Amino acid sequence: MLRDLWFLWAAAGVVTLGTLAYTVLLWMRQTRLEQLVARLERELE
């Protein structure tokens, strides 16, 4: 029984960490894309 609970806790932790990492990566890519677009707009003017 305890082993099953440990497995569930580990799975929940992995999912939580994965979601956090994915969110951070998406956010970083989004901000980098916005910076690129802003720089391109300045160069085109």
Report on this model:
- The protein has one domain (1-45).
- Helix content is 96%, strand content 0%.
- The protein contains one helix and no strands.
- It has one helix at residues 2-44.
- The longest helix is centred in the middle third of the chain and has 43 residues, at 2-44.
- The protein is rod-shaped, with a radius of gyration of 20 Å.
- The relative contact order is 0.08.
What characterizes the major β-sheet? none
Helix content: over 70%
Strand percentage lies at under 5%
Structural class: mainly alpha
Tally the structural domains.
1
> What is the string of helix and strand elements?
H
Query: Helix count?
Result: 1
Indicate the overall shape. rod-shaped
Q: What is the residue-averaged pLDDT? A: 93
Low-confidence stretches: none
C-alpha end-to-end distance? 66 Å
Number of strands: 0
